[in-house]
Amino acid sequence: MEILKHALSANALLTAFAVVGLVMWLSNAISKRLLFGRVHGSAIAIVIGLAAAFAAGLWTGGDKGVVDIPVFAGIGLMGGAMLRDFAIVATAFEVDVVQARKAGAVGALALALGTILPFIVGSLIAVAFGYTDAVSITTIGAGAVTYIVGPVTGAALGASSAVMALSIATGVFKAVLVMVGTPIVAKAIGLDNPRSAMVFGGLMGTVSGVSGGLAATDRRLVPYGALTATFHTGLGCLVAPSILYLIVRGIVGG
Amino acid sequence: MTISGVALLAICTLLGGFLGDLLGSALGVKANVGGVGIAMLLLIAARLWLTRRGLMTAGVKFGVEFWGALYIPIVVAMAAQQNVLVAARSGPLVVIAGVAAVLVCFATVALISRIGKKGETMDEIEAKARARTPSAGEPTV
């Protein structure tokens, strides 16, 4: 047992790859077999991650989730700011500029609204729940944009880990709602053509929520929605810790 | 070479981070302002430039796309190290903010989709595409 522990801790990052890989595999199996693709595997994996962090917090009394358990220390490196930013930047590689131009003004409008509206909603609710400092309000508001924009914003502004967790949880909850809710509301919101799928991707933003929700609605709409959605996170990461933060700070002060 | 793709990605990320810090101090914010977003724009620009020059080799592509494919697992690892215990204590905020944000966005999609001309539905587009190809029937891809 001691020898196994040593082998796992000495190769912390490899242990993290193995553990997260197993979680991803398990989540995809749950998604396929138990939920019939209704909820995307990645959303389930993130929920498992949050649940593990919750359990670890109870067990260790620490504030860094599973990273407080020595064997899982590598998760801290794998999910830390360095590799996270590295991987997010890499996703920009898939954006097709020519295709994106076709989305045109309506896509841009949807992207702008899709960043600003959830941010306003999230910020107002943060204020309603008693948060008064601009950093926390902005981080929670950004979490309502997507679960990536939330922590990126929080990390940039130096938000507390608790606020970061709230922000991620809000974004993940939104992604899950989008995945489950899209097929239900698809008809009512006119989601049956590429144009509205692009509007949808720009407004909803969460790539896993959009691709999961559209896949459950009509597979052919997925690339159109994902196209605008891939811009969403970048746009959010650009404006939330900058312009939006400055506006919030201007309103609440400090 | 695969490493050139990884290096390109690293350079864009580092440069974006640097410019974000620079922008932050210029704006008087003690934070990185949009570093990730700037890095993404740099990477898109680099890809267009490399493609135009014919320098976009399979190795370069693989070096970048490998990390892009790891993005969801990395987000899972990130979720697993958050202070969820504290967040759970203020649970209602998450539920209310999530539901409200999604409802507002769904409503806006409905609104924008109705503004302006109605686009062709996927069924209509496929029907047209099928009519254009004389050998109608199942696509043989």
TrEMBL record, chain A:
It comes from the Bacteria. It holds the Pfam family MadM. The chain crosses the membrane at residues 6-27, 39-59, 71-93, 105-131, 137-157, 164-185, 197-217, 224-248. Keywords: Membrane, Transmembrane, Transmembrane helix. The keyword tRNA processing does not apply. The keyword Nucleotide-binding does not apply. Residues 5-251 form the Malonate/sodium symporter MadM subunit N-terminal domain. InterPro entries: Mal/Na_symporter_MadM (IPR004691), Mal/Na_symporter_MadM_N (IPR018402). One of its GO terms (molecular function) is sodium:malonate symporter activity. This is Malonate transporter MadM subunit. It comes from Nitrospirillum amazonense.
Automatic annotation (TrEMBL), chain B:
Keywords: Membrane, Transmembrane, Transmembrane helix. InterPro entries: Maln_transptMadL. The chain crosses the membrane at residues 30-50, 62-81, 93-112. One of its GO terms (cellular component) is membrane. It comes from the Bacteria. It holds the Pfam family MadL. This is Malonate transporter subunit MadL. The lineage of its organism: Bacteria, Pseudomonadati, Pseudomonadota, Alphaproteobacteria, Rhodospirillales. The gene is madL.
